[in-house]
Design a protein that fits this description.
By secondary structure, the protein is α+β, with helices and mostly antiparallel strands. Helices cover about 15% and strands about 20% of the residues. Strands 3, 4, 7, 8, 9, 11 and 12 form a seven-stranded mixed β-sheet that branches. It has a five-stranded mixed β-sheet with strand order 2-1-10-5-6. Strand 7 and strand 8 form a beta hairpin. The longest helix has 10 residues.
Length: about 325
């Protein structure tokens, strides 16, 4: 009797696939915000406006190198919708260091990515400082097609290029008391001005965190590229996190430091608005954001956001088979 394969919830047939170190003391930070007349509940919703003309790609193919001999991991090759158009995924970007709108791709070109180093420190047996080129030679580079879900309730599908986080975990060998990992993004106020006057009150540099067992999950990914080419700056070049079962803000961009820690670290958005941006931040249709529902998502496409297709949100963004056991 022939075997009958049951498709995963996020899969569609191949032909349908087409071409996204220290913190301020929290109490002092919140006091400053209140003194400035701003609270977390008044922070702007930055994902509802159109990014403008997207008829041309923002991925300058003269400045981002294509990967040769790239293979797509067949375990992560299919999703329940078409891959987002490259022109949209490289122009509709969150990158708070460069502003609070989605039209930051031109400003992000100021990011200095040459001679990039990534320090790995903390509770590890083998602390290292990796050169970005060494990372791409040391760890096998592959392509994975992942759903991407923003906390603002919009969604994409992106063909990321990079390597599993668990390979770096194995290379540095965390100590037994390492329970969490903190990721720190590049910050220089002369280069990354932030979203206007309120930036002076934000807990820069941008940091994110996760549990070590989350980082070791098969899905957790370090992206060095997308759409078959190296990452453009507005998408987090040269190294960013991709954690597809969590809301997109959990993916730190332009990473310069990775620290293995014993205690849960403070993170950028969880510090600013702990009632809005949880440390865990798993995609959950049944847990609304304080200011909007998470039961559905809008699929980023051409035209204005009001015209985008709406679909029900899947628990864990459709990846429960891989990660639900982490939270049982």
């Amino acid at each position: 009797m022939p075997l009958i394969r049951v498709s995963k919830p996020w899969e569609i047939p191949d032909p349908q696939i087409t071409s996204e170190t220290s913190f301020l003391n929290r109490r002092r930070f919140m006091t400053n915000l209140i003194g400035a007349g701003v609270t977390a509940s008044l922070l702007p919703l930055t994902g509802c406006q159109s990014s403008g003309d997207s008829s041309k790609t923002a991925l300058d193919k003269g400045s981002t190198q294509a990967y040769s001999g790239l293979t797509r991991n067949s375990n992560f090759a299919k999703v329940d919708r078409a891959i987002t158009d490259e022109a949209l995924a490289t122009k509709y970007n969150n990158f708070y260091e460069y502003g609070g709108t989605k039209s930051i791709w031109q400003a992000a070109q100021a990011m200095p990515t040459e001679n990039w180093k990534v320090e790995v420190a903390g509770l590890v047996k083998n602390p290292r400082t990796y050169d970005i080129d060494d990372l791409q030679k040391k760890f096998p580079i592959e392509e994975r097609v992942y759903r991407f879900r923003c906390v603002e309730a919009w969604a994409m599908v992106v063909p990321w290029v990079g390597f599993p986080m668990k390979l770096l975990v194995a290379d540095v060998e965390p100590q037994s008391n390492a329970k969490f990992v903190r990721f720190t993004s590049f910050y220089d106020p002369k280069i990354t001005p932030g979203p206007g006057l309120m930036s002076q009150f934000y807990p820069w540099p941008y940091t994110e965190g996760m549990r070590i067992e989350e980082m070791a999950n098969d899905l957790a990914f370090f992206a060095t590229g997308l759409y078959g080419r190296q990452l453009p700056k507005q998408n987090g070049a040269p190294l960013r996190q991709v954690i597809p079962w969590k809301y997109g803000f959990k993916g730190a961009k332009s990473i310069v430091k990775i620290e293995f820690l014993e205690k849960q670290p403070a993170t950028f958005w969880n510090t600013i608005g702990p009632n809005e941006y949880a440390f865990e931040a798993n995609v959950n249709p049944n847990k609304p954001h304080p200011r909007w529902s998470q039961a559905s998502e809008r699929i980023v496409g051409p035209g204005n956001s009001w015209s985008w297709e709406t679909r029900p949100t899947l628990p864990y963004n459709g990846y429960g088979e891989y990660v639900a056991s982490l939270y049982s």
